Structure formats: C-alpha cells, structure tokens
Amino acid sequence: MAKGILKVKAKVSGEKTKVKLMAKHIMESGLRKDKKTGELIPAKFLQELKIMHAGKEVFVANLGTAVSKNPYFAFNFAGGASGDELTMTWVENTGETATETAKVK
Amino acid sequence: MSINRRSVIKAIAASGALVGASVLMPRIAMAAWTKSAFKAEDQATAMQELLGGTAEESADVTLKAPDIAENGAVVPVTVRSSLAGVESISIFVEHNPNPLVVEFIIPAGTDADVSTRLRMGKTSKVTAVVKAEGKLYSASKEVKVTIGGCGG
User: Which site among A10, A58, B30, B120 is 20 to 30 Å from A84 CA-CA?
Assistant: First the structure.
C-alpha cells in the first residue's frame, strides 16, 4: 500500500471503538496569497472523508476550507473488535481520491 | 360544500409534498458535498442551504471551545449532544469568509460526540448545529482570536 496521509489510532474501549484520526494535508483555502507573486494560491483541501467498519459507514465528514491544516477528528462508534479493519476514503477538491485502511487495536 | 372539500384536498396535497421534501432533503445532503452551503458567505445562507432551516438554541447540545484561541489556525472544538436520533453535526464560524466549516454525518451506532480543529480568521461566534430527528438544535460560543488563521 502506498504511504497514506491518514494517521489513525483506533482503540476498543468497552463496547465502543474510539477513533482518533489525523490527515496530513495542507488544507489550502484558496484565499491565501503567494507572498512573492501576490497571486492567490489555488485551493487544495480535503472535501470528503468516509470511514467504514465491517461494510457500514461509521463516520462521514464533509469538510470546508476552514478546517485546520492537518485536520484532526475524534469520534466513537458502537461495536468493533481488536484486529478489525477500518476503511477510509478521502476525496480532495481537485478530484484526487484514495482509500486507506487501519487496524483497530 | 364543494369549495370546502377542495380546500381540504389541497391541504392534504400540500402536507404530503412537505413530508416528501423533508424525507428527501437529508438524503440529498448526505449524497454529496453541498457546494452552495460551503461557498455561502454568510451563516444564515449556509445554514439554509445545508440544513434547510434555522436552528433553535438547546441545552442538549454542548459545544466545547476555548474562550481565547491564541492561534486562529488551530482551534480545538468538541461537539456533543444528548439528543436521540442525531443525524448530523455541523459547525459554523460566523465571521469566516465561508462560515460553514464542516459537516459530520452521524450514522446510527456512532456517538454524537466529535472533536476537530478549526481555522478562524478573527474573533467570532462559533455555532454547532445538531440535526436530530429532522429538527435543528444549536449551541454557540464566542471565541476570541488573537492571531488569525486565514490569509498570510
């Protein structure tokens, strides 16, 4: 698997799985100017993030440009066991997309 | 008599259309990134485009954010709700160029408890809107920003 941009920590805690996730991404808003040329830097940001567990969506985020650089998300979902796999798909505003996986600890 | 009957039928048809619209709306919102909402430049428009209404303040929505954010580029925010049947959680920053920051879709089984980090251009009210069983509830908090996170 190619090296992904998502760093995930998923841990089972009781009947829930706690997920902490960070994407390594610049989240360029399209409103910033290049200091040298004075021209606007084109927007490049994550637009959608979908996390599946056992074929079911557990978390979906639609992101705007005001999400911080290297976006961070934390959430819990019911179920999940150690060793389970999370499938994460992200879509950038440029149309670029990828799917990455992570294991639940 | 006939007029009366007609108006009754009309009323039934209208309410049917309303129910249909409210059932369809969240599906449309879930299907894709709502461009009109994310590009909207004021909060009311963004909220209308995304959620199709205005939210009422509720004590069942908890918004955790700092009073003063030293760095507007990274403002940690947590939204929780004790409401049942939460469908989505959206976060708005009133004075940002595009107030809608993020929309989380909460499938059944996932807690209405999410944390993330926002970018804030300047001191502004942060509003979290929770959609539960088709209704909108909100919580707001003023966050002071000493160094802005937009532009550069």
Answer: B30
Q: B34: nearest CA in chain A?
A: A62
The nearest CA of chain A is from the CA of B30 a distance in Å of 9
The complex's ipTM works out to 0.87
Q: What is the CATH number of domain A6-103?
A: 2.60.40.10
Residues B132, B85: contact at Cβ < 8 Å?
Answer: yes
Identify which of B102, B115, B152 has the shortest CB distance to residue A67. B102
* Cα–Cα dist B35/B29, whole Å: 10
pLDDT in tens, B71-108: 888 999 999 999 989 999 999 999 988 999 999 999 99
CATH number of residue B85's parent domain: 2.60.40.2470
Read off the pLDDT of residues A52-78 as tens digits, 9 standing for 90 and up: 999 899 999 999 888 999 999 999 999
Q: Cα–Cα distance between B61 and B82 in angstroms, integer?
A: 7
